[in-house]
Input
Amino acid sequence: MWFNNRSAVRSYGCDNYLIEESFMCKLFIGASPDLWEATTRSLRIDGMVTSVRLESYFWCVLEEIAARDSLTLPEMLSRLYSESIEAGHNLGNFTSFLRVCAMRYLGLQMSGDIPIQPEISIASLDADNILQNEAQRNVLNGWSLLASSGPIV
Output
């Protein structure tokens, strides 16, 4: 296979003929590799020191979320952990939970449920209403597994 600016050309079979294919994912593979470089950070959660390894992009999103409520990243992560445990969640994979938090934050911004303006704190938003809207969208989109979990009240 060889590449040019917008496509890949692959060699197939004994006849060695060429078929040009466009890069469907150029938007994603053209991004800076720094975004998916994983880094490990040490945190103190409930008095215990732990390490979390995430890609740089997720760290940036989580820092943005924390800054909206004037929290440091360790403060926000500790709150997320504590409040999740209090709500009865099993956080056996805290790193996955943080990735989902970051993706949901971006998705909720895209849907208009979380304002893009960083000066509007997350704590000031109507979480129950946002969760209800999200659950309704999940039903409309046919995401039955996501819709069935519904909002936590």
Q: What stands out?
A: The longest strand covers residues 38-45. The helical segments are 26-29, 56-68, 73-86, 94-110, 127-140, 144-149.
